[in-house]
Amino acid sequence: MENVAExxxxxxxxxxxxxxxxAPEGFWLRAAQQTGGVGRRGRKWESPQGNLYCSTVIDIxxxxxxxxxxxxxxxxxxxxxxxxxxxxxxMLLKWPNDVLVSDSKICGxxxxxxxxxxxxxxxxxxxxxxxxxxxxxxxxxxxxAEIDAAGFLDKLSREFEACVxxxxxxxxxxxxxxxxxLAHPVGMAVTTSDHGxxxxxxxxxxxxxxxxxxxxxxxxxxxxxxxxDISIG
Length: 233
Ligand code: BTN
Description:
Elements: E1 2-7, H1 10-19, E2 28-34, E3 52-59, H2 70-85, E4 91-94, E5 98-101, E6 104-105, E7 107-114, E8 117-124, H3 149-170, H4 172-181, E9 189-193, E10 199-207, E11 213-216, E12 222-225, E13 231-232
Parallel strand pairs: 1-2
Antiparallel strand pairs: 2-3, 3-8, 4-5, 5-6, 7-8, 9-10, 9-13, 10-11, 11-12
C-alpha cells in the first residue's frame, strides 16, 4: 500500500507500473487528491481532497473468469465496505459496476487492461459529492458515516481481496448470484443506448453467465448488452 498526497490519476500510475512489470498483484496506491482523475468512457472524475482515490492490479491467469467480470467483484467489495460504514441506508448495485446509496451515485469503478494485468481504479465519495452530469450524487458523510478515506480503504481492500479469491476459486457464478441479490430486480425498467446513440428501453431480464446484461424489449425480443451504461427505473 502506498499513499501519496497528490497525483494525476492513480489508474494512470498503476498502468505505467504494470507496463514496466513492477506492479505486483495486491499492491494498492491511494492519492489524497487527483489532478487528472479519469472516469469511464473518457469522462473526467472530479477528485478533491477528502474522498477516496485508489487503484490496485490483478494478474490475469488462464483459468480466471473473464477479466471484465472484475467489475462485479469491485462492485461487491465497495458495497460490503459501504454497508459496514452505513448499516441502514438503502443500497443497490447497478449494472455493470455502479453502487447506489439512497438512489444516488457514491462511487466510480474503472477497469483498464494492461497486457496480462487489469488495473482496478475505485473512487468513493467519502467526504464530498462532486457533481456528475445527469446523476444524483451522495457521499458517505452526507449519509451519516464517520469514516475517512484511509479507514474506508482499509476495509475495502480486505473485502476486495476476499472477493477476488472467491472469483478465482469458485468462479463467476456465485459472484453473479451475490451481485444479483443486491442489484435491481429482474423486470425493472432499463434504458440504454446503442452504438449510434439510439435509445433502447425494456426490462432487465437477468445476467448472462459471462455477466452481460439481458434486456427484454416491449416486443419480447431479448438483447445482450456487454458494454455501456444503463439507467433504471
Ligand atoms: C466512473 O466513471 O464512474 C469511474 C470513475 C473511476 C474513478 C477512479 S478514482 C481512482 C482511479 N483513478 C482514476 O483516475 N480513476 C479511478
